[in-house]
Design brief:
The protein is α/β, with parallel strands linked by helices and 261 residues long. Helix 4 runs parallel beside helix 6 (110-127). The chain has a single domain (4-258), classed as TIM Barrel. It has helices at 14-17, 22-29, 45-52, 74-87, 101-104, 110-127, 139-148, 164-171, 189-197, 228-239, 243-258, and strands spanning 4-6, 32-38, 58-62, 91-98, 131-136, 155-158, 175-179, 203-205. The protein is globular, with a radius of gyration of 17 Å. The chain contains eleven helices and eight strands.
């Protein structure tokens, strides 16, 4: 079977690094041969850069996540631009919009989130890099902004939750749709129908480890990239297509959209 790529894994997170080196060996044993490691805030850049420099199969992505939009500064944006120039990440991310934050946490502003998102999309366009996009309750607005900005480098909408029509608006802009652990839950019927309906050429696999645990995990147990084959197996079962075909195509999709070898 073609080695899988976890298209979204917070590999630098202490909960995963505390499991090394056994976890990486387990990934290889389970057929997970590459990881995309997105950033969330400026303070993590140096740690992630150093980590991804240690292995050619750990791919760096740099960005400022909307969850920290109340803490990002203009200097952080300048540091991001400098790091993109110096360290050649495979994507700008994890960036995006999270409209749920404005009801869950005080001090969050949609206007502020959109300002950081637009600035980073412009950086990606200038650098000719794809995006790794976080979207929660914001699919329509994100699509609208990407069209207004005439962004044409594509990318991945990670952990997608939305309708087929919303997904298609992203794929028309050159984006792939990321499916992860949520797909392993029987109750995720809307997401499962979407995974059945989308063309296989529009789908990539992810874990979002150590977050977004999979069905069957004990409470508090971190999600792990070596669990990615569970997502693959569920997707193959839903689509009633050969496991090897799903594996080959989702890997090819990730390679193509992120321009990896």
């Amino acid at each position: 079977m073609h080695q899988l790529i976890d298209s979204h894994c917070h590999w630098d997170h202490p909960r995963l690094q505390n499991l090394q080196p056994r976890l990486w060996q387990s990934c290889l044993t389970q057929g997970v041969g590459q990881l995309v490691v997105p950033a969330t805030h400026q303070a993590s850049f140096s740690r992630q850069i150093s980590l991804c420099e240690q292995h050619p199969c750990w791919h760096l992505a740099l960005g400022l996540h909307p969850y920290y939009s109340d803490r990002h500064t203009q200097q952080h944006l300048e540091d991001l631009a400098d790091a993109i120039d110096r360290h050649a990440p495979v994507a700008v991310g994890e960036i995006g919009l999270d409209f749920a934050l404005d009801t869950e946490l005080e001090g969050f502003s949609i206007t502020r989130q959109e300002r950081w998102f637009v600035a980073q999309v412009n950086l990606a366009q200038q650098a000719k890099l794809p995006l790794i996009v976080h979207s929660r309750m914001a699919n329509d607005r994100l699509g609208q902004l990407l069209r207004q900005l005439k962004f044409d480098q594509g990318g991945i909408v990670h952990g997608f939750s939305g309708s087929l029509q919303q997904a298609e608006k992203f794929t028309q802009l050159g984006f792939k749709i990321g499916f992860g652990g949520t797909l392993t839950y029987d109750r995720a019927q809307a997401m499962r129908r979407l995974a059945q309906s989308l063309p296989l050429t529009d789908i990539v696999l992810e874990t979002d480890a150590p977050d977004m645990p999979m069905a069957g995990q004990e409470k508090g147990e971190p999600n792990r990239p070596d669990m990615l084959p569970k997502v693959l197996a569920v997707l193959a079962g839903l689509r009633m297509e050969p496991l090897s075909e799903i594996a080959f195509q989702t890997v090819a999709n990730t390679l193509n959209v992120l321009r990896l070898k």
